[in-house]
C-alpha cells in the first residue's frame, strides 16, 4: 500500500489542495487533459520532496481537494499498492521533485497544440505574437524520447527542464513548472495558446511575420512583470467560478 506522508493537515496545505484541485477542474474544462491519464503534482515541504499528486484513474473534471495523494519522492514504496499513482506519474514527478526542487508545481499533459509542436522535427517556436514571445528562448526542448517516462527516462527528463518554466517533450507532450499552482498553470495555459497561434499560422501555408531578436527579447522581458499577478488573478477567478458552479471541488 502507498505510505502517505505523516503530517498534520494545516490551513496552508488545505489551501494548496484547493488550488491544485481547481487547476485540475479547469484543465478539464479547457479540454487539455487526456482521458484519465496525465498528472499534476505540488510540493508542500521546504525540501520539495513531499508532494500532492492525482490518484490513478481519477478524471480531472471530478477531482476534489481530498482526492490528492500526499507522497514522499524519496520513498519508492509509494510506487506500489492498489492506491498508488499511475507508474509514469510516480516516476516523472518523484524524479522532478527530487532533482529540481525549484519546480514545486509540476504539470504534465499532452495538449493538442503543444504536442503537435513536440511532433515536429524542429520544435522551436518563432516569435510571431506576444504569446510566443513570452517563451522566446525560455523553454527547453527534449529531443531524446526514450519511452513513456519510466526509470532512466524519468530521471533524464527531470534534469532536461533545467531552470526553464516549460519542457517541450519531443514525441510526447509538455511539462510546465512553477513555484505555485497559479504560476505553473499560467505557464501551461499561455504555452498552449502560443503553440495554437503558431500551428494555426503554419496551417495557412503563408509566410510568417517573425519579430526581430531585439523585439522578441524585449517583449519576453516585459512579460516578466505580468506573469505572477496575471497567474494569481487568473486562478482566483477560476476558483470563484468553481465555487459557484462546482463547489465540491474544494472538499
What does this structure look like?
- It is a single chain.
- By secondary structure, the protein is α+β, with helices and mostly antiparallel strands.
- The chain has a single domain (11-250), classed as Class II aldolase/adducin N-terminal domain (L-fuculose-1-phosphate Aldolase, 3-Layer(aba) Sandwich).
- The protein has 7 helices and 7 strands, in the order αβββαβααβαββαα.
- The chain has a 7-stranded mixed beta sheet, with helices on both faces.
- It is globular.
- The two termini are 24 Å apart.
- The model is unreliable at 1-8 (pLDDT under 50).
Core attributes:
disordered N terminus; single chain; 43% helix; 7-stranded mixed beta sheet; alpha+beta; 251 residues; L-fuculose-1-phosphate Aldolase
Overall mean pLDDT stands at 93
CATH superfamily: Class II aldolase/adducin N-terminal domain
CA-CA gap between termini: 24 Å
Judged by helices, strands and strand pairing, the structural class is alpha+beta
Q: What fold name goes in the CATH topology slot?
A: L-fuculose-1-phosphate Aldolase
How many helices does DSSP assign? Answer: 7
- Radius of gyration, Cα only, in angstroms? 18 Å
Main pleated-sheet profile? 7 strands, mixed
β-strand percent reads 5-15%
Shape: globular
- Spatial order of strands in the largest sheet: 3-2-1-4-7-6-5
